[in-house]
Amino acid sequence: MTAELVRGQNHPLFQSRLEIRISAGTPIVAAAALGDENGRIRGTAWVAHPGAPTQPGLEVSRQAAADHRLAVDLDAMTDAVHRVSVLLALPAPAGAPGPSRFGAVAAPFVAVTGLDGDEVASYTITGLEAESAVVALELYRRQGAWKVRAVGQGYAGGLTELLTDQGLPEAVQLAGSINEAVAQGLARSVQAPPPRTSDGDRSRQAAAPAVGPDQGGTAPQGATGPVPPSYGGQPAGGPGQDGPQPAYGGAGTADPSTATGGGPVNYSHPRRQTSAPPPPPAAPQPRPGQPAQPVAGDATGWSMEERLYNQVWGMFEDLARTTAAYRSAVDFAESRMDKELEQALSDPRSRIGGQGDAARESARARHAELVGQARESLDRDLAQLVAEADVVEPALPPAFARWDNPAWHAYRVPMEIPMALRLGDLRLPEAERIRIPMLLRLPLERGLWIDSGRTDGIDGSFTDSHDMRRLAMETAVAHAARLLAVYPAGEFTVHVIDPAGSGAQALAPLTQTGVLAAPPAQGAAGVTDVLSRLTQRVDLVQMALRGGAPDALPPGFDTSQQLLVVNDFPHGFDDRAVNQLRYLADEGPSVGVHLMMVADREESAGYGPLLDPLWRSLLRLTPVPDDHLADPWVGHAWTYEPPLVPPGSQVLHQVLTQVAAARRSWNR
Amino acid sequence: MTKGQAISLQKNDGGSLTAVRMGLGWQAAPRRGLFGSRTREIDLDASAVLFADKQPVDVVFFRHLVSDDGSVRHTGDNLVGGVGQGGDDEAILVDLSRVPVHIDQIVFTVNSFTGQTFQEVQNAFCRLVDETNGQELARYTLAGGGAYTAQIMAKVHRTGTGWTMTALGNPANGRTFQDLMPAILPVL
């Protein structure tokens, strides 16, 4: 049982051999003084201090530290000793850089413990202000028994004043020798860490390990999960990276019960406002008038990946909303100008003289002013988002990164499924410089449709249908390769149906590296074969799940996620195959079978409305930039750009070679 | 302060009033007579209407929780009020620095969606808070008020480079903010 003492309170001591633990947020000097029956210190020999650390029954540490353990043996005291005072002092300013008053540091905490480490009594010294020395506790004899009392008497004049008050004649000399010993101790010891700055605080936070469940499938949904503390920090920061540590640990004996490893802890009772709380850890403050510097991973999440994912979505929403603000302001300015111009026109007085011209002029000026203001605030927001994108984009893991990101050159086959996949980039015409990564949660919930139909490029360029098909197939291969690469070895299988073999050239990266489960299926027979195998698979897994026996699947059953890439639909498809395809699109995603159609909707028009549900159930992507995607907040039309491999880059080949190698060793 | 009293909260430097919150809190009225546990639920709703040149441009209420530009946010609909004392059960946060430039007035309203008048509501209050420092700018006690079902609480409007808040507290009647439009327009 620990008695938490308040100032003036006492508590009996039943042990004679005690340890007194002291912890403070900064290095302090600890000493112990003996007093006679009148409370006086009879001489310098009655004080245990860093210059003379041992006295009969007393031992203190030799140097200033944030944590101290003082050993006390009350049985070893002579009969003349009636009182043992525990003294704390801040190192004199000459001896060490640092605070010169207790009001500027965290409230010191003192605990009396037995040799077994059990706390007998503890006391947090609150309410200190200008004092630089304090009598923390005293152990005193009362009717033959020892007791402890919380004192907390501070002295603004430091140790000199304290010792003088205790009746020591040589107070000045002793205080001087203590300070000298402390200064020597500091010189001996490791250089004290510099005071924590805002930067130091940040890197310490980055070094805090983000404890959480495994990433991937089991990661909690960022939007709905509990909100963990946000660690702003560099992505490179890992648990092993040490930033400047807070001034703990100087004595190397930090006790978890009395000193936590975090920042300065205020031990005072939260509702007992006896003193001003110590200043909170300085958060990185933006310079006045300037927004804070953006940091990658500056969002909530249990892992860096989740934080980046949430940050990207935050940027997406911010861009959507700030653009909405701009557009509505411009719309309003235009409608107001129209109204005013109409008024000026219909006003008969304006037909005479220059009045009408003046009214028109002022309407235009009002329009220009409002649009200018709107543009100004849009530009301010865009600049912030550009700065954020500049730090976020390079920090993205491969699954979120563009193909030209160095993360792909440093690619290693992952051990865990990422939480999301980058399907491309999104941008708005007002902000051509900002590309928002379009991140889709994994596992896929719906199939993908790479539209090889003719779209007039939004930049007015025209792509002929042959080029379009080739581009669509290349896009599909890039998506499929990315999926293969971000899943752990053997957990993702890609099947290809290419009935006429027209996609052979685009499929080369997949076929040459040998990452496909089987060569692309050709002809009507091949189509039927692949489709019936996958349909059977869906049936089997569904049966097992519905029967509540997912472990009853046949031995050797491939449990990986399946992706079926279909080129040239509906060539080579009979009615039965079309029905199987629709079945896969509807039922497949829930059992890990996904569809990627590379198709032109016009070509399957012969099926009539039968296929409309199929197209609607797929997420439409385009091989060329196209503005067909809407955001969930405001509904802007965003321009989608497919994630194409830079021309001439070998990154796809290199990555897939690694995937194939990992797959071979995994199969073995 | 009393109902209907209008005070201007002009900040000297204009820029310091950057974020305001309208908080609304209430408790369901206990039923009189037997079966006292069967309290009648009361659903009050806080709304904010954004005006540009006296035309409503956007509205934030329980069906549209965030204005399109993201500057005004509703913390979510509360259908039954709070059980404790003092806390805001619904709140609308306005980030004044992000409000689109053409929006020049934002009007805050409170409606009784379930139709009880403020006479029947317990411990209902509505307050306007400066979000930057937590200081309460204005507070109305709605409980025991008159036989009306809505109140136009306050408006925040542009003056020069900054924003000014005027507390209104005008009583009105209506189920949602749409019913209040005729009552709002005169105060713009």
Description:
- The complex is a heterodimer of chains A (668) and B (188).
- Chain A has 668 residues and is of the alpha+beta class.
- Helix content of chain A is 32%, strand content 21%.
- In chain A, strands 1, 2, 3, 4, 5, 6, 7, 8, 9, 10, 11 and 12 form a twelve-stranded mixed beta sheet that branches. Chain A has a five-stranded parallel beta sheet with strand order 16-17-18-15-19, with helices on both faces. A four-stranded antiparallel beta sheet of chain A has the order 14-13-21-20.
- In chain A, β9 and β10 (119-124) form a beta hairpin.
- In chain A, 42% of the residues are buried.
- By secondary structure, chain B is mainly β.
- Chain B is globular.
- Chain B has one helix at residues 177-184; strands at 19-27, 44-52, 55-60, 72-74, 90-95, 105-112, 122-130, 135-141, 150-159, 162-172.
Uncertain residue ranges of chain A? 189-262, 273-286
The first-level CATH class of chain B is given as Mainly Beta
| Biggest interface pair, counts | A-B, 18 and 14 residues
Rg of Cα set of chain A: 37 Å
The CATH topology label of chain B is Lipoxygenase-1
Oligomeric form: heterodimer
**CATH architecture descriptor of the largest domain in chain A:** 3-Layer(aba) Sandwich
Q: What structural category do the secondary elements of chain A indicate? A: alpha+beta
Radius of gyration of chain B: 16 Å
Sheet of most strands of chain B: 5 strands, antiparallel
Mean pLDDT of chain A equals 79
According to DSSP, the number of beta strands of chain A is 21
- End-to-end separation of chain A in angstroms reads 60 Å
Q: What gross morphology of chain B would you assign?
A: globular
Count of alpha/pi helices of chain A: 12
Structural domain count of chain B: 1
Shape of chain A: elongated
**Secondary-structure element string of chain B:** EEEEEEEEEEH
